[in-house]
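Sorry to interrupt, but I need a hand with the structure work. Please put the record directly below this note.
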Amino acid sequence: MAYREIPLPPECVNRIFCKSSERMEELPDCSVHLMVTSPPYNVGKEYDDNLTLDEYRAFLRRVMAEVYQVLVPGGRACINFGKFGAPPLFAPPHLRHPRHAGSGLFDAGRNHLGQGVQRQPINSLG
């Protein structure tokens, strides 16, 4: 894909949109260089919707398809999916492997470039 960038409209610069990323109609295609997110883990937190695994993966696919639309060619998506490979007490089945958790990103046609590692103390599971 040839490089292409569409400038952000002035009303979108330095602005936070408090909404789901399933639809980012405010942002033009090919206008974002870096997306950083920690999506809902769907593990029963107050803000989770308690989706089935299929519903959760469909949600991720919708979000990642939209992210793919707004990223410039070569743009980066940095996604925190929690503790991969953690014992069952700490991670539900859909978060034990990045290939499953990130299924929406792979389905959207992006390549997995690597995994960043962040040390997190065991007492910060909340």
